[in-house]
Specification:
The structure is a homotetramer of 346-residue chains.
Chain A lengths: L12 H9 L12 H13 L6 E5 L2 H12 L4 E6 L3 H4 L4 H6 L3 E5 L8 H13 L6 E8 L10 H13 L4 E5 L2 H8 L14 E5 L9 E5 L8 H7 L8 H11 L3 H22 L3 E2 L7 E6 L1 H9 L5 E2 L11 E6 L6 H12 L1
Parallel strand pairs in A: 2-3, 2-4, 4-5, 5-6
Antiparallel strand pairs in A: 1-7, 6-7, 8-9, 9-11, 10-11
Helix pairs in contact in A: 1-10, 2-10, 6-7, 8-11, 11-13, 12-13
Chain lengths: 346, 346, 346, 346
């Protein structure tokens, strides 16, 4: 009964099988192999973006930070939500990969930036001239760190703010699958058609061992990206083993099935929390539930063996009601969810 | 009638004279000269810190950013007020000199951090473990960016928070002279006796052409500092010309006279603003006045030729009342202040 | 018949099986799982270093560059052979991870630095004072980029030079297994007993998909290393999948068997080259052969389908004799070697 | 009798007078003042480059490193002579300002790169693909670190190599005045007309206190340069005091007079060394003399009080003949040269 994160589980059997299937024989290293080529092609197809440049890395932090470094100079300002993963959870990777850029955080309910608030901060940044650095990049996360979803209209509105200022828009898609599955739109709709310039298309939280695709929809934006990837140690010599993980998830639509599974379970948990007298801290739109629950429900859940985090951290221990975060994964067992629901309801 | 900043005026005649006086003959470069040695000694005397390591640079941004780089690793968190110069006005220099540290801002009235608020944010940073980076440095500015003064007790309280966490305390003293003059204490009281580990002792805003001293009270903290200074291009070959500027200000106490002049003029402006129906946005304790004034007073001041900035920026144009910032300098003419007072009062 | 590199082949079946075996269930991420713990323990056992700190990353460039960043400041000088992988083949990763350190190269036959030559360059670096930066790290590769082996005595002599100057010694062990297998010594003999402070223990070239261990023999040397790893995107959320690869290779001694296979095949190729009228450019001591061969032998090899690189690069095309590099891998088929030998001999 | 360096002397009286002359009144800071504007204009005139972007910094290391950072990415390769100041004497500043670029050194007699040797190394760098980083910048020094002069034809030949590869050419002109004075050409001839894209026009070694101009002949090359300068702490608030130093040297041609003085004295020393049985290690073409002299001449010079460095460092102590470096400055007294000549000749 592990609801701590969607990275606590392992890899989908199809991913493991794909690793074995591409294991035979000798191929040239560093990405010059047919598996990598095919995986890149499949991602372009899924995104309906025949010109896009696709590259694979093993971690979400690498993907995001490399994109930050690609777009923002060391004197750049990168605008993101105050709870953005790049701000709170990557140990300063964007700052390191850019050589010193500043993350400018934007508040906003449910993990989402509002275009007006963003524009206002961008204006202030620009008004500071040399003093505050140059506006460099806008970054959003979808699904957000609060498990909510930016709608296509909301993405487009932020893209407009970015593009009017001549800035690119990055989407941290560590849970892109969950967002697409939740929105019921196409991957293209949720990315380049809405104005996204660079997408980090996550695999790890959705059944890969450790694989993410970085996608630049305009190939000109990818100039020199391979040097950045290499210099940061993120080019694998046996690159096919990264690529094939994404291939296994994307061919045949497995990625959306897995994301839908996680989303559905989270919806069920949300209902149970409300039924148990709890409250949701944000709408449950993908695979995460942020809620407060009565201390008794918390005690019953823990007694039943459920593992999850208090929110925002352990300092919430002892609060009444208890703020918690539950995350469901691509393979969270239905039985675990049922058991947690039973415990919550008492 | 220039009240835009305390860097709009030139250098004190004693500074210029000192440049000429040390010009003759050949000496070894890069700081191995007797003038530099003497200037370092005088600063140690003024600070009553015989063990301190003293180094000179030409700009306040260099001084602050070098100290940040000295203490905070690239994965470090540097805590400062949300209006700190290192956060708002140095184009990301601390991030660059550290290689990617994150400035974590702390809100607080009148430009001052409260120890409790600081401690709370430091706790959260530490609680994040690897995710958010490692707590690395606490930085305060005195006089603050709002022209207020941290009292010795307030500094000590922040130093306690820092030291209990094993972190050093940096003081951005671009207007250290104004702070010491305002507090009527010794330079030692306002620095190491209150718990400051590294002081950027400003000269430029107080009558130098461009000179600042970086002081590490514990010589162990200065290890390798000269490499950092050299690698960033801040070691002058004709180093004596930096050092002698500080020498001219510090020998004989000129630095405190000049700072007192600026402080006194600001106090007069504050009184005039209140008399003219304006309001102070922060207590006027050194050489800056943040206030709102009636539009008519603003119009009269502008008509009289007064130069100053709206606050926080030009977007304040047209507000009623008008938020403004006035800064007095070491040599702001009394007549200019009198003229501005007359214009404000109408 | 691929002799281009030892990273052209895939993973050993035991590695793939181990991935599957550890796939079930949910564990805490980022290394806080029992598989990672066990893999770290096994490496400590193999190295007879119960105090060592062991961490896993996916690429050799990451491993090397992280160690460089751990030891050398941004104003540091890192001494290595002029053909060192960190100098020629990592796109400036050491420079990036240190924030600007300088690699000072040392010439030397067969890919090996001589202690005297190293000491002489270190002396010159120190003599330059601030100008040239501070001596920071010594790095050697074993097996070397030329397929040769530093003997235990040679390592110790270099370690002495390093330690007398107060500097640590890093060993790039991308082919550490090949070196240990060739020397017939213990892993401890070839590392800490000979004076190595930090070892990059390679798995990828020896049958892993992509896994390397970074080992600090003195735990004090590992301070903050996890922050560096995280900030560069090299901490895997599903960390067990890295760790288990090394575990599969090390438990039961598979790593030495595989390395011995590669070494033995290379020795056979060396004999064939000599028999075919070629010459060796360096002693063949591990799994790489640098040689010149008659153009006819080259033509026959190519006609037979052998894939390998000219040396040092394609500009050697058309030379007589033809300089080439042949690399054997953990699973290079005996038949391929036999076929190449036949082709070379004509 | 100081021949250690051309930075051991102070500033020309005209420079000091100019500082005083621009001291009165209040002007806007950070370069938005009329003195800076005029100094920029005068440099454009002297260089016959009406479109050029001109910026001032206080040290040569800052100037060079900022240009490196402007042109070379962190994965870049910067080609320079093995004795280039940026390689040997700036503590890794180019590496720091670029965030990790690699300096690739090129050997060559008398401090000068040969175009063929340069092209060959550039080819090898490009051939390495991702492995070695991307070719980014070519840098030459004129006058060179050996006191020699690249002729206009030699500069043009190197510029051709650079431009054919699509790379810019930087000239470290710490002693640009000495080079122009020696060549008897125009400043334009020696810079943009010969293919130089960015010039660091030195003032410090030629009579300034500490002032250098960075010149980008194509304004597009200067994009964002002010951010870089600011973020590294090299924008002075009282910027006029930097600018006016260059103005004092350039208006009226003082810069060439001073350089000619230094050059002439060096020529005299060279003659004396030959007459005293010494040998020149490089042609004496500007204000530095590299030579070997008999031990007796060395002893007499030292006894007479002459200060100079052994070459390349103190390890030359005791050699016979004695390798030395003598540098003359803009104001080296004729009497000092005469005295040294007398001592050398015995």
């Amino acid at each position: 009964m592990n609801f701590a994160s969607d990275n606590t589980y392992g890899a989908h059997p199809a991913v493991l099988a794909a690793l074995s299937d591409c294991n035979d024989g000798a191929v040239m290293g560093y990405g010059a192999d047919p598996v990598t080529e095919r995986a890149e092609a499949v991602i372009r197809e899924v995104l309906e973006a025949p010109q896009a440049v696709v590259r694979f890395v093993a971690t979400g932090t690498a993907a995001n930070a490399l994109v930050c470094g690609q777009y923002a100079p060391r004197y750049g300002r990168i605008y993101c939500h105050q709870d953005a993963h790049i701000e709170t959870s990557e140990c300063g990777a964007p700052e390191f990969f850019t050589g010193g850029a500043k993350l400018v955080t934007v508040p906003g309910g449910s993990g989402k930036m509002q275009p007006g608030e963003l524009a206002s901060r961008m204006w202030r940044g620009a008004a500071g001239g040399m003093n505050g650095g140059r506006n460099g990049l806008i970054s959003i996360t979808n699904a957000t760190e609060w498990g909510t979803i930016y709608s296509l209209q909301e993405i487009a509105a932020i893209a407009d703010v970015a593009h009017e200022a001549g800035l690119p828009l990055h989407m941290d898609g560590a849970r892109f699958a969950n967002a697409v599955a939740a929105a019921g739109c196409s991957a293209a709709d949720m990315s380049w058609r809405a104005g996204v310039d660079a997408l980090c298309f996550g695999g790890t939280k959705n059944g890969a061992m450790g694989a993410e695709a970085v996608v630049f929809f305009d190939p000109a934006h990818a100039e020199d990206f391979d040097y950045r990837r290499k210099q940061s140690g993120h080019v694998f010599s046996k690159q096919r083993f990264l690529a094939v993980q994404m291939l296994a998830l994307l061919e045949g639509g497995l990625w959306l099935e897995l994301a839908k599974h996680a989303n559905d379970l989270a919806a069920g948990l949300a209902d149970a929390i409300l039924a148990a007298g709890g409250n949701l801290l944000a709408p449950v739109q993908s695979n995460a539930v942020f809620a407060t629950i009565p201390p008794e429900a918390h005690a019953r859940a823990k007694a039943a063996g459920a593992i999850y985090y208090l929110w925002p951290d352990k300092s919430a221990e002892g609060q009444d009601p208890v703020p918690i975060r539950l995350v469901t994964a691509w393979n969270t067992p239905d039985a675990d969810v049922a058991a947690l629901i039973a415990a919550l309801k008492g």
